[in-house]
Amino acid sequence: MAADCGRINGIGSWRRGIVLCAASALNFLFIPFCSALPPQTQPTPAGGVVRQIGAIKAITGENLVLTPDSGPEINITLQAAARLVRIAPGEKDLKNAAPIQLQDLQVGDRILVAGKTSADNPTLVASSVVVMKRSDLQARDQQNLQDWQKRGVDGLAKTVNLSAAAVTISSRGKDLLIHTSGATVIRRYPPNSVKFEDAKASTLGEVQPGDQLRARGERSADGSEFSADEMVFGTFRNFAGTVESVDASSSALTVHDLLTRKNVTIRITPDSQLRSLPPEMAQMMAKRLKGMTAAAMSGASSNSASATIDQNPRPSGVPGASGGNAPGPRSGGGPDLQRLISRAPAVSLTDLHKGDAVVILSTEGTPSSAGTAITLVSGVEPILQAAPNAGQAMMLAPWSLSAPGGDSAGP
Length: 411
What we know:
Layout: H1 14-17, E1 21-22, E2 28-29, E3 49-60, E4 63-68, E5 74-86, E6 98-99, E7 110-118, E8 121-132, H2 134-151, E9 152-161, E10 166-171, E11 174-179, E12 185-188, E13 200-201, E14 212-219, E15 225-234, E16 236-247, E17 252-257, E18 263-267, E19 273-276, H3 279-297, H4 303-310, H5 318-321, H6 333-343, E20 357-363, E21 371-378, H7 381-386, H8 390-394
Parallel strand pairs: 5-8, 11-15, 12-15, 18-21, 19-21
Antiparallel strand pairs: 1-2, 3-4, 3-7, 4-5, 5-6, 7-8, 9-10, 9-14, 10-11, 12-13, 14-15, 16-17, 16-20, 17-18, 20-21
């Protein structure tokens, strides 16, 4: 009997995002993005059946080390009569599973393992293992990446019409009406994460004006409307300021926001993209942004000006910036600027000093937790002098979080 795991069809960091759903002690279902069960099933008392889900970290003979989706690593010993089967991503019935041998297992494969432990030995003695091969997951990653690029749209939410189950976004300087249905999968980024696998099931009612939103589906013939199969959204901050202090020990820095005139603490993680613009590049970008600002203020309606100054501060993280999960450059000034930023030299937190001018794109954070930097660019003094709104313009880029676009760069 299959467990009722719900249905969340999304893409992102497949090695961690796809989970296995256990139906019973002897029968398993492999359902992507199962939300009904926690990522790691809690062990039962010693002697009872234990199920664990995760990725293989090491293989030594008949012993495995499993990195579960949460919690500490687990040592696993395979029984001589253990049943090993391989199942394809998205498959929902073990009737289509194929028997495999121990030697077929590889580091990085995702598995659902069932077995027992004892009071004096915490090692899990496995009687059954369901395997999803890493190579199969990577192939599906690429297919989904291509589909999001082909059938995806992104922009800033403007209005939400709950009675019509629709949201209007501003995308490349134009309004686009996105329709949802009961079958549309909707997810929201948490306040302190830019990883797609961390996005939680949500509803259209949680979308707020200004939220960054991306959807996958079908566009109408005239291009003005869109029917969404999936949608992910989140709230992100974009501001310019000067560095007040750097705390390398806690991977954080404090920045004085030039607009609010308040100090803001930002966390830096391995996924944060830190760049420093060389003086000649900063001068070139300042000249371009100054011209765009003048065009926008004079009422110019070119896509370059409207998209760059007024619309869509699209978050950009390491994966997209390094050529990973973001769609390729599109028309308009913003993506070109982002390409320049991605080519700027990378720096570390310790390269930043008090008084440095920076532009930051970050998660919104919470009252008790600082936001996380997605992109931080230093060396921007000429740009901020040329265009007061340059901080927003610089961060315009195609959606490139660890988001709908696969995990090809690493989500």
